[in-house]
Model the fold of this input.
Amino acid sequence: MPWSASSLRLHVESALAGRVASPFRLREAAVSAVVPTGLGALDELTGGLPRGCLTEIYGPPCCGRSSILQSALASRTKAAEACALVDAQDSFDPIGARNSGVELSRLLWVRCQGIDPALRSLDLLLHGGGFGFVALDLGDIPVRLVRQVQLNVWFRMRRAVEDTSTVFVVVTQESNAKSCASLALRVEREATKWSLPIQKNGKKAAHTPGCLLDGSTNSAEMVRTFLRHKKPLFIDRPKITGAASTAHFQLSSYKSAKEEKLPETEFFPAAEAMSEWR
Amino acid sequence: MAFCAIFVPDFRLQAVIRSEPALRNLPLALLDGPQPTFRVMAVSPAAQRLGVAFGLTKAAATEFKGVQIRLRSREQEAAAHAALADAAWSISPRVEKTAIDLVTMEVTGLETLFGSYEEIGSQLQSRCWEVGLQVHAAFSENIETARILASAHAGPTVVPVGQEARFLKPLSVDLLGPSEEHAEVLRSWGIANCGALAALPVLSLSECMGQEGVRLHAIASGKGHRALIPAEPEHVFEELLELDEAVEELEPLSFLLGRLLDQLCARVAARALSVRTIFLKFELQPAFEEAFDTAKETVRSKRHAGTFPCSLSLPRPTQDAKLLLKLLRLRLQDKPPNAPIQKIRMRAVSDRPRPVQGGLFLPATPDPDKLELTLARIASVVGENNAGSAEVLDLHRPDAFRMRKFSAGTADSRKPSTAMGEKLQPESPQTRSGFRYFRPPLPAYVALEEGRPVRVSCRGNTGKVVHASGPWRLSGDWWEENTWQEDAWEVELSFVQESACASGVYCIVFDALQKKWFLRGSFD
Done:
């Protein structure tokens, strides 16, 4: 006698009883906690960088990937989290990072010379655990070499940070992690801003000693997201218009940027309540 | 006032067995004396049953099959004595180092902490066993009675107040420690045990043997009171291991290091301390070329073996021997000794353990012990100076920084996190552009027009300069040998060839001393 669907279902459920709860019920993934990148437009678009997930930031050289990474590092180190940066090509700028607000004492910087030691170091770091933010910078590694990284490596890394509070960010030139990435951002530089004095004939002088690099306008497109987050609504800011999956942000040159005191560490209301109790 | 004496029977044998636990159940004979004429000076009961006797020569002792023969090591004996004292200090702060194989301590008032004297004795024996020693323990109201009973019985022996003479009565007078002369006198009188000595009249004994006779009589009567002389506790722990055959490979070496670390950590833990720093010193076997003088074709009589130092400093003190072993292994993998190892000397500097109280509102940080191990493993992959925190130096030279050891920080240094209530920061109007360094800088060819760069070639790519800002002239260290002087330009390059990098903003520098152009990095 053929099995009916209901009896078959009952049989499977009884066979898996005690091991799998409700095998036929779709389990919704837990909502990931997110942390801000420090770039408001990007945070409004993505909701922030997810914890326990792999986030991929990619784009061509000079597109602003390092700026996003630096900003996120500043945000996390200011929140007193232990951060780690695995730098595959030893390209990190500690002085610029410090000027951007990164607390270098809370950042473990692993300087590698190639992709293999970088991946091995990253594996040790992720499995060691305890870091709030771990970044793998493959931004200067040739694309053909990064493509050779097997997909199972990305799966292994994603698996290592799953169910942890670690924000894991990979910076590359092309998207490689594919479906392992819970959030993928493609970054582009739209324009570079220069301070160009006007010459007598009305044209801007390109090559003058007074020409200064002001910064750049960049865009980040959210290529992939598996996150279910509620888009934050800010009372004091207008609603974002334009393309829903792209954020535009400004970066200033280190020479033109004024000294700005970064906001203090975010305040946790419960801590305030605790202090009141005392 | 109550005292406890802890005695180590066959101390010299146990000092050797402590370093080689496999010898514990084997017949063992110890040799001592001037080098050519070694004599047996200590024999285990198993070896005695096989016929090995005191005073045998080395050649005669080796005739007995199955008997393990070792040389006496005074350094190992000192380490065993220190371990014995550490075990005693774990119970009482007032410990006297009475002899190399005996320590005495005051145990008055410890019943509330450890229970009855029998329980204290059992705990002492188990703690001594943890540091590799089998001991006898005895408790008495006077030090001398406790000492003699500890030498005589395995115990723990507890002597009730006023019963000292009864416990001492059957014991041999040799346990009182008389001099040879007085022992001979007592033997000639037929005095064999303490009971017989205590029965002698004190005045007559004083006339025959002097004050020493009176002292021996008092001890045998259970009235040998004297004050305890407490020793100062030490905070440096040392263990050593001498090897019959030199060890060359890491695997057997780590086995030996593990044994030493177990002993050290047991001693440190017994004192409620933790290991802060470990200093290792290997005495190396001289190379054959060094040992053999080719010019004279004779073996050098005095060979100076080289030493190989190695140290390990921990940011947080620990008692975990396995963790220390892993860290030492990683350290030795990176920098192995250049010759086989003959002797291992390990010294641990202790510190107070620092219990870490986690906070509900503090962000998670790596476990300090685990982090130390992870950092050591990463350092073995990327190099010791390539993993850590960057520290910016107060110099005008671009990219002036140095690496220092990364530490996750203490709980006090961490501020409340926003882990449960993340707030998005408002957009900063002055988000700085990131910069990526090319280390080392890439040599570049730069075409100039009217002193300004117009084309930049590097690694086969040629870019046309769209905008340029500079030169930013920098120099420094002119008062030193490594002086530097450069003109830096920020250039926006547009590449003629079609590639992924169609344009970008870079930093090029002209080294005025080398008269060369370099590509320093890119704004990203």
Observations:
- Residues 65-78 of chain A form the longest helix (14 residues).
- Chain A has one domain: 39-247.
- Residues 39-247 of chain A form a domain with the Rossmann fold fold (CATH 3.40.50.300).
- The mean pLDDT of chain A is 80.
